[in-house]
Amino acid sequence: MAAASGTLVGISGTLALCPTQDQLSAAIASEPALCAKLAGAGLEIPSPAEALAAFRRAKNTEQATLRLGECSKNTMGPGVQCTVKYKLRTAWKDEGDGVVAFSWGPDGWQAVQLQ
Questions:
Q1: 4 φ/ψ angles, rounded to the nearest 5 degrees
Q2: pTM of the entire structure?
Q3: Nearest Cα to Cα of residue 37 among 24, 46, 26, 25
Q4: Which uninterrupted H or E stretch holds 50?
Q5: Closest CA to 84 of 63, 104, 70, 102
């Protein structure tokens, strides 16, 4: 009986310390560096600010928001492609999911939405 009680208390304590999905999402949103972005060593990936600026130029709007996810080598050209969550207007409630390719050019980072 004592062993069962100890096991139950241990499991309960462990579950109480596990973050919820909302807590994880909030932590990653507040500090994007917590989310691993490199799929392989040696990939040059834009910073969140550089990616946002390139995305805004590509979409021709200063209201766009962008959150980077995982990045990997671009299979269709130079640079990297990253999963993203984005809005084209800050007033929009929900974010869209997509894939954006980033490459370094003479004018800095360039972005092209693939999905």
A1: -65, -40
A2: 0.63
A3: 46
A4: helix 48-59
A5: 70
